[in-house]
Design goal:
It is globular, with a radius of gyration of 24 Å. It is of the alpha/beta class. The strands form nine sheets. A seven-stranded mixed β-sheet has the order 1-3-4-5-10-11-2, with no helix packed on it. Strand 7 (65-67) and strand 8 form a beta hairpin. It is built from nine helices and 37 strands. Bound molecules: flavin-adenine dinucleotide and FE2/S2 (inorganic) cluster. FE2/S2 (inorganic) cluster is lined by residues 49, 51-52, 54, 68, 70-71, 73, 86-87.
Length: 518
């Protein structure tokens, strides 16, 4: 239900119109509210997600939480707390009263105090977070939300405070999101929460025994607990030739701004995008929205084929072609001379702007040099602890024992990185919370969002329910009859339900996966 006006909760709603487990939308004065019934209990909370304003009326109730249909944030119906990223802030709650057969919403409740922290004996005196990205920010944020009062330092190689990285290839690059939407937190947030954020502070070594990190500038920081959240770096191409234009890469706010500036330059009419990955295609969509001609060069026969299969790949290609993108598939850029790219098949493309999105490499050198266990990522146990006690890792660098696949996996998803940051914070405080979330990511192309839950590196069947080209479909990836992942286009309920089903199927991980060896 998306009728935001809906019921007038001041007058009240007859009990019979609020089925158990349903979400009923309405308002109290100017406030948009949803009311939920769980058995004999009624809850009234804000109608919009604090991430991107998703309509919670279209979400899913799971126990005493509501999940957002857009990117699966999860809020407590009792306290409004954002219990799972990508939302970081609580939604408001109102008092609900039953008057005979009618439910009435009364005054707004005060924000509840943060839940108590862990037992004091387990709490470190100082925590250092290396990385100012998704996992680093949510870890620091959760430590403070849980009442952690010790010293908290965030060291980031970036020149900007933590940003909404997914937006850098989407609305910001397309010109529909303003600069001030991009920081994840306000400038005052860090001082208010006593988070000592140091920018352009690259850590160069970790003394595991001495519990200290050293920065590029020679200074050191002692820690009782350390979180490594160093993310990933774009793979750089080494192209032959003498180019007259730079090849742009996209990871940071500065990178995105540089592409915007180049696209805005009066001479930029045609963009060459190397790579048909999520980043490459999102860049293609955003640059098309800015009115540039866009040519995408990539070696695969369909974009995203390896990750999502040929049907989704064809759909994505047709979608981009319908917007005017020209694909050169089965080819790579062999050289760039002046503004002319020569492809491996001998053809040429003249370009004013070049962007490469050809994958990323996790930043694991720091962990590796410190002697931590490495396996194509930093090896962590189910509590996200590395092979060194007191040192945790989260986000793009972490390879963790995923109970859903029974395999150790490493993914490059925003929501996973944020949730791992939150879980690592709890474990730093001694809460021993296993990370068992079902992986989730989304990707946006023009006004089409693809949501993906689960993890399927290999599958033997991909069943499509609905019609991808009609923008109404569920694709189920299976191996040996078992559902590993579900991709959806405008089927948000199916995506939420698939996530819950996978959670319910969750089994204890095999013990062999539990502890990384040093
Ligand atoms: C343009 C773009 C769009 C994306 N869109 C999506 C999307 O739509 N959906 C999705 O699921 N995922 C998306 N992703 C992926 C997602 O952003 C990443 O998975 C996520 O940011 C990983 O979080 P992280 O904390 O591990 O690393 P990051 O967010 O990359 O943060 C790493 C931090 O570590 C710092 N750092 C690195 N080395 C050091 C060092 N030695 N010392 C100090 N600091 C260091 C970096 O400066 C940075 O601050 C996108 C990524 C990009 C680049
Ligand atoms: S809008 Fe709710 S999770 Fe993104």
């Amino acid at each position: 239900m998306t009728d935001t006006k809906g019921f007038d909760f001041k007058t009240g709603v007859p009990l019979g119109q609020i089925p158990d487990g349903a979400i009923v939308a309405g308002h109290l004065g100017d406030d948009e509210i949803v009311v939920v019934r769980r058995g004999d209990e009624y809850f009234a909370v804000g109608a919009h997600c604090t991430h991107y304003h998703g309509p919670l009326a279209d979400g899913l109730i799971v126990d005493d939480t509501v999940r957002c249909p857009w990117h699966h944030a999860c809020f407590s119906l009792r306290t409004g707390e954002a219990v799972r990223a990508p939302a970081l802030d609580a939604i408001a709650c109102w008092r609900v009263e039953r008057r005979g057969d009618v439910v009435v919403v009364r005054e707004k409740l005060d924000a509840r105090a943060a839940p108590p922290g862990a037992e004091t004996h387990a709490v470190p005196r100082s925590v250092v977070v290396v990385g100012g990205g998704a996992a680093g920010l949510t870890a620091a944020d959760m430590l403070r939300r849980l009442g952690y009062a010790g010293t908290l330092t965030m060291l980031s190689a970036d020149d900007a405070p933590p940003v909404d990285r997914p937006n850098l290839s989407k609305d910001f690059l397309a010109g529909t999101a303003k600069e001030d939407w991009i920081p994840l937190r306000s400038p005052e947030y860090y001082a208010e929460n006593k988070i000592d954020l140091l920018l352009e502070a690259r850590v160069t070594s970790i003394d595991v025994k001495g519990k200290r990190v050293r920065l590029e500038n020679g200074t050191t920081h002692a820690f009782d607990a350390l979180l490594l959240a160093t993310g990933a770096e774009p793979v750089r191409l080494s192209l032959a030739g003498a180019p007259a234009i730079p090849v742009h890469y996209l990871r940071t706010f500065a990178d995105s701004r540089a592409i915007v500036a180049a696209a805005d330059a009066s001479k930029s009419k045609r963009a060459l995008v190397m790579g048909a990955s999520f980043i490459g295609l999102e860049v293609a969509a955003s640059l098309r929205s800015r009115g540039l001609d866009v040519h995408v060069v990539a070696p695969e026969s369909e974009p995203l084929e390896k990750i999502m299969g040929p049907d989704v790949g064809r759909f994505i290609r047709r979608l981009h072609e319908s917007k005017g993108v020209v694909f050169h598939l089965g080819a790579t850029v062999a050289r760039l001379d002046g503004r002319i790219a020569t492809l491996s098949d001998g053809s040429t493309i003249a370009a004013d702007l070049a962007v490469a999105g050809v994958g990323v490499r996790p930043n694991i050198a720091l962990a590796e040099a410190a002697g931590l266990a490495i396996d194509r990522g930093v090896t962590v146990d189910e509590y996200l602890q590395t092979s060194a006690p007191g040192i945790f890792a989260a986000g793009d660098i972490a390879r963790w024992p995923d109970p859903h696949t029974g395999e150790r996996i490493r993914v490059e998803h925003w929501v996973v990185a944020e949730r791992q940051g939150q879980a690592a914070a709890r474990n730093i405080l001694g809460q021993r919370q296993r990370f068992s979330d079902v992986p989730f990511f989304w990707s946006q192309h023009y006004d089409i969002s693809i949501n993906y839950v689960g993890h399927a590196e290999r599958w033997d069947a991909a069943d499509i329910d609905g019609d991808l080209d009609a923008h109404d479909a569920v694709v189920t990836y299976m191996r040996g009859g078992r559902t590993l992942a579900v991709a959806t286009v405008f089927r948000d309920q199916a995506s939420l339900e698939a996530e819950v089903k996978m959670e319910q199927r969750f089994r204890e991980p095999p013990s062999a996966l539990a502890a990384p060896k040093g």
